[in-house]
Every structure is written in C-alpha cells, then in structure tokens.
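for ur thesis appendix - DUF6545 domain-containing protein. copy paste whatever u need, i formatted it the way the template wanted (i think)
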Amino acid sequence: MQTVLFILSAVFWVAAAVCVPSAIRGRRRPLLLFLAVFALTMTLMPQPVYRPVDALLGNGNVTYFIFHALTIVAIALLDVIVQEAMSPRGLTRARKRATSLVTSGIIVAQAILFFGSDWRVTDDIAASFIPRWDFTAYAATTWIAMGIFAVSFAIACLADLRRQRRPVTLISLSLVLLACLGVLTYAVISLTSAVLAVFYADYLLVGWARTAYTLTLLLSPISLVIGLGLTAAVDALAAGRENYRDRVLLWRITPLWRRLLSDTPHLSIERQLSPRQLLTVSGPGAHLYRRHVEIRDSLLLRPEQAVTPAELVIIELAEQRTQVGLPATPAALVGPTR
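the 3d part is after this line
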C-alpha cells in the first residue's frame, strides 16, 4: 500500500509539472495550484513520510490535521476551476471571497475539533474509524465537503459534455465524471462507517464495502488528475511539435533571408540571431513569419534576385506554416482547447 501511495504522489507531481508550461504562459494556473496542493496532500499519506513529518511537528498527529486541511484547500481550488470554466464572466470577486470564507471556516472548525480532542494522540490515527462522535464530526467536515463537491462537479461535467466536440476533452470529462463517482462513493462509505463504528464497538469495514473503499481511494485521485491534466498534456505535446517544426523551418530559411537582405538591411525589422539563438529563441514561429514576409517583400522589390528551386520549396513551406489558421472550439471545463 505504501508503494502505491508513493507512486500516486509521483503521478500527481508529474501532472503538476506538465501544467507548468501552460501556467508560465498565463493559462491553467488554478489547475497547477490545485495539482500541487493535491500532490502535497497525497505525499503526506505514506507512513515513511507521515511519521518523520509528524515527529518534526511534535508527534501529536498534526500531520493528520494538515492532510485534512489541505484536502479542503484542494476542494476549494477545484471549485475555483469549475466556476471559472462555467461562468461567462469568470470568477467574480464575491465568489472568491465566499470560497475563501467557507474554506477558512471549515479549516477553523477542523482545528477546534482536532486540537480540542484527546483522540488525536492515538498511535495509528488513520488505521481505522475511531468510535467517537467528536472524531466523526471532525472527519465528516472533509467527507461531506468531498461529497457535495463531487455531485456539483459531476453536474458541471455532464453539462459540459453536451457542448464539447474535441475527443481529448470528451475523454477528460469522462475521467473526471468517473472520479466524481468514486469520490462520492468514498465519502459515503467513510461517513457511514464512522457512524456505525460509534454505535457498534465491534464494527469492521470488510467485504465489498472495504473493496469499494480501497479502490475509490486509489483510483479516484488518478482518474481526477488525469482527467484534469489530459488536455494540458495533449496541448503541451502539440505545442512542442509545432514549436519544433517552426524551429526547423526557421533554421532552413535563415540563410536565404540573410542572402536576400544583405544588400538592403533597411528593409528588415527582424533581429539577427546566432546559430545558438536559432535553437533556443522563444516563439520561433514569430521569427519565421517575419523572415518569410521580408523574403517576399525583397523578391517583390528586386525580382531579379536568383532563387533556387530548393529555396522556392522552403519559401512555400514557410508560406504554409505562417498562413495556417486554427478552428475555433468551445472552451472546456477541464482546460482551454487549442
């Protein structure tokens, strides 16, 4: 189980890393923040991490409280993502304030229930459901929040499915829906088991309920993270492929651009790039476009300049690359489409 938790944590950190390029460009920043918080939450679960961290915090199972608090923060961030995607005008200031207040209120309530109790000093706090109402009330704040959000997020995804046509977006939404079902199942089983543990001292979570509990705990986060990050990953791969094609063509067209404009440098507004800069410059497509335009202008002004058939092919390829238009598609709940 510990190995599985480590693998899950690694998957979530990788998903967050995939979103970094989009976040740098100003897109999917709430998604990156959610993935980072969620990855940190899952990283605290394995015992080889939990126990040393808790020892640093005084061995009072404070790490358990941090885990629940981070879960509430992750739910709030996911709510921000949903509201930004579903609201025509984006997330309003009032909505942000309400989300912050509700999140803070839940965490404060958790802190009062946690630090005001004595059950938190048990040796294995996460091993079973503690048969006490104050523990049930504490843990229920997280489970109820998870269940409510799973339902609202699923409704939003179902509404979004009807207006999306991009296959990768449909797959992403389906995975998120599956995750919502798993989260709701996990929350219901957890809350029910905690209540039964209070009423029946010998209660144990066994059979199909234990199987469903374990599977949803492991598979729901994976399905959610993949669903939320799939569009970003596909877009990043597509952007990388386009960037590579632009850079290759920029490298090929540069000698022709330099030769044709060597006698008329005043016609060019494009800056000179060294061979190393051609390989590393950001936005190679913009440089390709300007050099292609300047080559065309130079040939119009001085048609007597000699151009080989191979160079004409390069000019035509640049024409195709710089004139390609992308079709408009609806914005997706799981991330902007390209």
